[in-house]
Design brief:
CATH architecture of the largest domain: 6 Propeller
CATH topology of the largest domain: Neuraminidase
Largest sheet: 7 strands, mixed
Strand content: 25-35%
Shape: globular
CATH class of the largest domain: Mainly Beta
Number of helices: 6
Distance between the termini: 7 Å
Number of strands: 31
């Protein structure tokens, strides 16, 4: 649940004096003296919160030494990831009817792709399955060649079988632990499958398999919302499933429709740029409703289902501030009132009691936190000079954000809300921006230019591992995952 409007606001309004966002000189990033000083500076001051003190000290010392502090925060992959080796052979067809729709093949392919994207499983290459004599194997425990699958390298085996009737099929699933030669109890009964739901059934199975091994079901098949290029330089709002399939384009009037967000009634909130002023729109039940009517502009909505409240950036004169309103646009409340700075990009905490947002009150855009009643405002990020697009994790512990380093390169970071610890997730792969959390907090979707000037959408685990492109189409921006 995030909304980001910083680049738009700065670009359109150009309110601040020239040079406000200039980066410090890069200096000698490899200087031993600089690194030693920064290491010492990272120790928290007595009586101060460790995260804030460490961030502040690193930032101040780095600038004094001509080093951008973000350049000192690098991707740290840690030890080798532990993934479960799993074999997913093609589904076994029972009977003589021909599978003209290719349901068995499609289901197996989707399962393999989901498991690979999850980062939790190592899907073994299909060509290695030749070590198992398929003519002698069935789908029950007594017919599984456990020794052969062990030689393939599998710890887990997925076996699906189906019977075709016309263009439909009945699928049943079995999972086996190769090491213990025993079945795995996955609660997945018989499924009636056709070309219209085969992908959904595959996603459902993978989610249940992930749930068995982790305690929390997966999120495959959930949808991601984004803005895309349209005709005549307009922008459209679209969505697709986690793996990039099942695309939908929302039936909206031709306009510059930007910064989408999942809204009430299963609808879509977005900002529509108009000549008379930008406003928040809601498209739900095939009806379009304008929720704001500012004399200035309003943009970047974020909806919190638990409270039914929408937060957004509004400007009655020049600078933006954070506002809150009900889902129908009523009961408007101004949350921040700082006339000499810009406040934007609100993101609700999962309990709807706090908001993260961006403010330039310190002179540079930084991430702040404020209570939903306007009290308790505090600065969260102290490292870096251009931190934007916060998105609060559904687990409540982390906020993902975009930061720009001394090379004017954008990358994605997370910050622990309680400790202030900052972690870098992307580096040296083009510009990476606009992170949005999956509903389970395991993954982030984001836009990246690593494959060209126009951004495409990517998926990664919350620690930055297993970055996977999910859209071949360029020009997709500001993704947001369905909560």
């Amino acid at each position: 649940m995030m909304k980001r409007t910083w680049a738009y606001i700065v670009g359109v309004l150009a309110l601040l004096p020239s040079g406000v966002y200039a980066q410090p000189a890069s200096g000698d990033k490899g200087s031993k003296a600089a690194l030693s000083a920064l290491e010492a500076a990272g120790k928290p001051a007595e009586g101060a919160p460790a995260g804030e003190a460490g961030q502040t000290a690193i930032n101040d010392q780095a600038i004094a030494l001509g080093v951008d502090p973000l350049s000192l925060i690098t991707v740290t992959p840690g030890g080798p990831p532990v993934r479960i080796p799993i074999a997913v052979p093609d589904s076994m067809k029972i009977g003589d009817n021909i599978d003209e729709a290719g349901l068995g093949r499609t289901l197996a392919e989707v399962i393999r792709n989901d498991l690979t994207m999850s980062g939790l499983f190592e899907v073994l290459p299909v060509e290695t399955y030749a070590l198992v004599d398929a003519s002698k194997e069935g789908v029950t425990q007594s017919t599984i060649q456990f020794d052969s699958w062990y030689n393939v390298g599998a710890s887990v085996l997925v076996k699906a079988h189906y019977k075709v009737t016309h263009d439909k099929a009945d699928f049943e699933f079995a999972v086996f632990n190769i090491d213990s030669a025993a079945p795995v109890p996955i609660a997945m009964g018989k499924r009636h499958v056709n070309p219209g739901n085969v992908r959904a059934v595959a996603h459902e199975f993978v989610n249940k398999l992930i749930g068995f091994f982790t305690g929390t079901d997966g999120v495959f098949g959930t949808r991601i919302l984004f803005a895309a290029r349209g005709k005549n330089n307009f922008r459209t709002i679209r969505s697709f499933e986690t793996d990039g399939f099942g695309g939908t384009t929302y039936d909206l009037p031709e306009a510059i429709n930007a910064m989408p967000e999942w809204g009430p009634k299963g609808g879509v909130l977005f900002t529509q740029l108009m000549t008379k002023g930008d406003n928040i729109m809601l498209y739900a039940d095939k009806e379009l409703k304008q929720l704001t009517d500012f004399e200035g502009w309003a943009s970047g909505a974020d909806y919190c289902p638990r409270s039914g409240k929408i937060a957004f950036t509004g400007a009655r004169e020049q600078n933006g501030n954070i506002y809150i309103m009900d889902a129908d646009g009523s009961n408007l409340v101004q949350l921040t009132d700082m006339p000499d700075s810009i406040q934007t990009s609100p993101s609700w905490a999962p309990d709807c009691k706090r908001l993260a947002f961006v403010s330039s009150t310190s002179g540079k855009p930084q991430i702040y936190i404020i209570n939903a009643d306007g009290t308790g405002m505090r600065r969260l990020t102290w490292v870096g000079n251009y931190n934007t697009t916060p998105d609060w994790s559904p687990k409540g512990d982390l906020i993902a954000f975009t930061a720009r380093d001394e090379r004017n390169v954008f990358d994605i970071f997370t910050i622990n809300v309680n400790t202030g610890e900052v972690m870098r997730l992307t580096q040296d792969q083009g510009h990476n921006r606009e992170p949005s959390w999956s509903p389970d907090g395991r993954y982030l979707v984001f836009e990246s230019t690593r494959d060209g000037k126009q951004p495409r959408l990517y998926l990664m685990n919350q620690d930055g591992r297993w970055q996977t492109r999910i859209s071949a189409t360029p020009g997709l921006k500001t993704p947001v995952w369905h909560p």
